[in-house]
């Protein structure tokens, strides 16, 4: 699991970094002293699976970070007080650790997160839809209705049979998240639904009226995925 730490206390931050380094299969991607820098990192970085989060941060409640994200990683709250426990579990946090944190208790919390992460990965493998945030709501997009994903600057356009949606993400992040054999990255800017391809030329393919480029590196992978007579 890839994790980050958000804590404004330098000694506490250092202690959590050392604890993370003791945990098996836990990759520490960054440490931050406030919500703003953590959010900026999470918007640019590929998906993080786990956040170790202090609640008492400068000027803000640490839980406000979760309201700013387009996806919700697992969260283990690490706080010097238990006063915020009820509020934290309203956000469905994975665990709540009271400072100072002993290694055995830390490892139990990480193991709980690891178990939930595996369950989530198994579910994603068998999932047949994705949910995207649109105007404060989660909108369900069934895989069979999705035609392709396209990079548009810092965003990804999702073209479906029902319309077009724009989300703040990257093609790499989507390629990592969608565990379904019908989708294939055919170009650095495109992931297509193989079931909607009409025809394939040397360097392009056609889905409905949309002509999509195929990179030289991805063409052999595409051809190997097709049932060619």
Count every beta strand, where a strand is a DSSP E run of 2 or more residues: 17
Q: First CA to last CA: what distance?
A: 42 Å
Would you tell me the overall average pLDDT? 91
Number of helices: 7
Low-confidence stretches: none
Overall geometric form: elongated
| Overall SS class | alpha/beta
Query: How many discrete structural domains?
Result: 2
CATH-level-4 superfamily name of the largest domain: Response regulator
Q: SSE string, helix = H, strand = E?
A: EHEHEEEHEHEHEEEEEHEEEEEH
Radius of gyration over C-alpha positions, nearest whole angstrom: 21 Å
Structural commentary:
The chain is an alpha/beta fold. The chain has 2 domains: 2-126, Response regulator (Rossmann fold, 3-Layer(aba) Sandwich), CATH 3.40.50.2300; 129-225, LytTr DNA-binding domain (OB fold (Dihydrolipoamide Acetyltransferase, E2P)), CATH 2.40.50. It is built from 7 helices and 17 strands. It has helices at residues 10-22, 35-44, 64-67, 85-90, 103-126, 171-177, 219-225, and strands at residues 2-6, 27-32, 50-53, 56-57, 60-61, 74-79, 95-98, 129-134, 137-142, 146-152, 155-160, 164-167, 183-187, 190-193, 197-200, 204-207, 210-213. A 5-stranded parallel sheet has the order 2-1-3-6-7, sandwiched between helices.
């Amino acid at each position: 699991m890839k994790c980050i730490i958000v804590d404004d206390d330098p000694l506490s931050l250092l202690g959590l970094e050392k604890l993370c380094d003791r945990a098996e299969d836990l990759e520490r991607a960054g440490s931050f002293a406030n919500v703003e820098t953590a959010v900026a990192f999470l918007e640019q970085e590929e998906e993080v699976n786990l956040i170790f989060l202090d609640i008492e941060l400068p000027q803000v409640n640490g839980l406000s970070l979760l309201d700013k994200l387009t996806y919700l990683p697992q969260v283990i709250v690490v706080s010097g007080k238990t006063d915020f426990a009820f509020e934290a579990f309203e956000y469905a946090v994975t665990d709540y650790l009271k400072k100072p944190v002993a290694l055995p208790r830390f490892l139990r919390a990480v193991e709980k997160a690891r178990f939930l992460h595996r369950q989530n990965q198994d579910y994603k493998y068998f999932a047949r839809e994705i949910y995207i945030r649109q105007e404060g709501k989660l909108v369900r997009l069934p895989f069979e209705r999705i035609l392709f994903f396209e990079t548009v600057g810092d965003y990804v356009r999702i073209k479906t049979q029902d319309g077009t949606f724009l989300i703040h993400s990257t093609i790499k992040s989507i390629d990592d998240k969608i565990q379904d054999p019908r989708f294939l990255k055919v170009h650095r800017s495109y992931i297509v639904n193989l079931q909607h391809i009409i025809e394939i030329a040397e360097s392009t393919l056609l889905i409905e009226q949309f002509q999509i480029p195929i990179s030289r590196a991805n063409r052999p992978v595409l051809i190997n995925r097709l049932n060619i007579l």
